Amino acid sequence: MNSSESLSVARHLWGAKPAVSHPTTAVRPRTAARRPTVRAVLREWGPWLCCMALMGVCDDGIPLAMRLHDPKRAGHYLFYGQDDRVLATLVEPILYSMTVQEWGPEHWQFLILSEQSTEWQVERSKHCKGVISPHERDGNEVIPAMAGLMEQRSFGRHRGPQYVVVLHDLGRYWKRLSEDARYDLVPLLQRGHEFGVHVVASVRYEHYHALPQEVRRLFRQKVYGFADDAHLPNTSAFRDMTNMLYYDLMPYQAWVRSGGEWMRYTAPRLG
């Protein structure tokens, strides 16, 4: 399966070609990008299909969307960024876009595992099942509970809405999670999308190696956010992307691969 299939749906719907950019050694000054609101983008390009969530707007003005309703296409995303604020800036508009479309919580819902230092405006939405601290007992039960739901649905029981499970700033608390929680994440990433359970995780660059390679590999789509003074992992991929992450991004922008090319997009403002 092409990992970009579940990503560039909005672009494919409107027949647009990806905005192409390539890694380069030249240092270019950052330029501020226009940040429309989530509602403005949805008004201009909607109505959207059920279980499409807005990620942002690419450099050519075409929106970038997640598509989470096709059981044959993995809908698991791993976001990288400098810190928890940058990561939340990329992730929260996706959740917010779910709450302002015509599709109610009977169609899709989300649950956030996050330390209390991050404030989530979407917590008050009827689509939100809760924001749970990973340091509380309930936090260790989130992943096993979703894995259990996946298993029950595989037997034809407990049909219901699509779920998006957000594991925010995961590298900070990965090793503190229970053994069951860490173990159950693997099958959830392998088959969760087949039964309406999707994982969106965010990790700081400095915590890249905190997640096992097997877990990182199972996220079919990876998004690379603002780095600034972050220490990038010493891998060939990140060495090639150094200038893209340090010099080509604002804190509300990110790079993602689609169709074999790099695309830069701007996360919209809430509202």
Report what the structure shows:
There is one protein chain. The chain has one domain: Rossmann fold. By secondary structure, the protein is of the alpha/beta class. Helix 4 runs parallel beside helix 6. The N terminus is likely disordered.
Structural features:
alpha/beta, Rossmann fold, 9 helices, globular
How far is it from the N-terminal to the C-terminal residue, by CA?
34 Å
Low-confidence spans: 1-6, 8-28
What fraction of residues sit in β-strands?
15-25%
Q: Roughly what is the average pLDDT, rounded to an integer?
A: 87
Treating each run of at least 4 consecutive H or I residues as one helix, how many helices? 9
| Largest β sheet strand count, sense and barrel closure | 10 strands, mixed
Query: Architecture, CATH level 2?
Result: 3-Layer(aba) Sandwich
The total number of structural domains is: 1
Outline the fold blueprint.
Layout: H1 9-13, H2 38-45, E1 52-58, E2 63-67, E3 77-81, H3 84-99, E4 108-113, E5 128-132, H4 137-154, E6 162-167, H5 170-173, H6 179-191, E7 197-204, H7 213-218, E8 221-225, H8 236-240, H9 242-246, E9 253-258, E10 261-266
Parallel strand pairs: 3-7, 3-8, 4-5, 4-6, 6-7
Antiparallel strand pairs: 1-2, 1-10, 8-9, 9-10
